[in-house]
Amino acid sequence: xxxxxxxxxxxxxxxxxxxxxxxxxxxxxxxxxxxxxxxxxxxxxxxxxxxxxxxxxxxxxxxxxxxxxxxxxxxxxxxxxxxxxxxxxxxxxxxxxxxxxxxxxxxxxxxxxxxxxxxxxxxxxxxxxxxxxxxxxxxxxxxxxxxxxxxxxxxxxxxxxxxxxxxxxxxxxxxxxxxxxxx
Length: 183
Known about the structure:
By secondary structure, the protein is α+β, with helices and mostly antiparallel strands. The relative contact order is 0.09. Strand 1 and strand 2 form a beta hairpin. The protein has a five-stranded mixed beta barrel. The protein has two domains: 3-107; 116-175, CATH 2.40.50.140. The chain is 49% helix and 21% strand. The model has no long low-confidence stretch (mean pLDDT 75).
């Protein structure tokens, strides 16, 4: 499943949930004119925020606000004789939706940096050539670029080295079989 298909599926699920919740609110035994308009609007905005949480790339901020508005609206509607089990059920469904969205959002976070210094440090690559007669300086091909390297030990073409530091355009390397820096 591609990212676009997953995004469309989440929108469809959010829309279906909105229809389910709004249908259960309208099917309540209490006629709508007896309900508090403020409580009803808070519930509607809370549901809209939960749907927005499903479609926008954030980490629960909008969903948490929607859940708070939903609960406050339900408390206001308590005075209007809305069935308590309906409010509890809708609050639980909203909380479960928010938790599911947060878990999904946290799973999509990047695991490791792959660019800049963080992407270079610790990389292993073979030495492509030496610089003149200096056995401590050479060249490597890394991340699609040719880098000049400097080592504390003599280098040989084809030898695998690990990047331990970067100073400008010069990479400091060590033999790949040596322990990484910091261990």
